[in-house]
Amino acid sequence: MKNPRTGSEYTIELKRIDNTGKVTEITTIHPDGTETTKRPQEENK
What we know:
mainly beta
């Protein structure tokens, strides 16, 4: 099934990166058009 928004049959992963180079958010767009957004857990230093 093609994603009507992207015309793709693939899962697309978008990563939002802040100015320090850390990934702050990962949005996954599935072929059926649904999206899931994950926020990586903060690492304790």
